[in-house]
Model the fold of this input.
Amino acid sequence: MGERDVVLPVVGLSVESLAESVLLHLPALTDALVETIYAQSPAYRVMDAVPRQDLWRSCHDNVARVVQMIADNDDRFDAAQATGRRRAEQRMPLDDVLKSFRLGGRLVWEAMIEEARAQGAVDSEALLDVASKVWEVVDRTSSQVAAAYHVAERQLVRADERRRSTLWEGLLHGRGKDRAFVQEAATVLDVPIDGRYLVVAIDNLVDDECTTSSFVRRFAAVRVASAWQVRPQTVVGLLALGTESLPKALGILRDVVHAPAGLSGVVNGLVEVNLAYRQAMLARRTLPAGQIDVAALTERLPEALLLSAPELAGQLVQTWLVPLTTVPASERDLLLDTLDKWVTAAGSVRRTADLAHCHRNTVINRLHRVHQITGRDVTEDGCQLELGLALRAFKLFPA
Done:
């Protein structure tokens, strides 16, 4: 006799015979367990994830296996493992699944007690031994359920992440025009199909999951739904503005983002997310190296245009500024700074002098020096637009 075998002190009465007797009432015991689970585990009713027939079959197979293991000490966990996998796929919380196994263990124990009493008197010590064996089997079975559940859960998470990544990449590369695709994307990402959207592209962050979760909470607080995707070099955010304004969203981003980033203009619906993504990436490129800020496309349109047409940007620099690179660096930087303030002051000598903190005659002398070096008279009408673009291009393409 094995060390776990238990024989009750009644002639012919053993754990095996009790188990065989309980198995004769398996359908009724299964019915009772299903009703107990519905009564004591509300998740099975509220979530409606497990069909009643599925629950009945699972209870039937697991009770049968538990009773058989109690009788012959032969570990057979096929039913438990199948239940663990299936409940994970059905998104049933593991705590509720394990609770159902504890309820089943209690019913099996009660059924065996009733059988023992029906077949003859037994002493309390023997009943305690049977109880120990029942709960040992239930514990081992529950461990197998949990293990199978966790394996399936990890597989589901990986599959969900792959599907989510596929949907993101599809949106960023123009599949938003496919109605079925965009509906699935909206469901999975939990954002509306239509409405006003922004896209933000942020240089990849440290502790991405924690950071993006905080972004979601921050925007949710102002009724802006958001979704985030961590890509190899960039964290991309999708902001469903609703009734909120672009400046407000930009203010939040500048408060929470501590890395170089670009923000698109407002686009209409998920169908235009690919356009917004290109805009966000373009806006990001307008930031000078080392500058940490959220560059909004609406604030940096000239720079974005220059980046979109690098040949024209180079021609502007060549025409207006390249000759200045021949003078000593200290003089060059002084003249470039004066030209920048000249453009900001809309060609006003007095305002330029105020901005440069110098006398107006100093400004005139510096502009004359620029004329000598470049051959271009910056005081002529109509030159400020080209000069301003040239100065921006020079910052974007310092080489």
Remarks:
- The beta strands are 196-203, 225-230, 234-240, 261-263, 267-268, 294-296.
- Confidence is low (pLDDT under 50) at residues 1-12.
- The first strand starts at residue 196 and ends at 203.
- The longest helix spans residues 124-172.
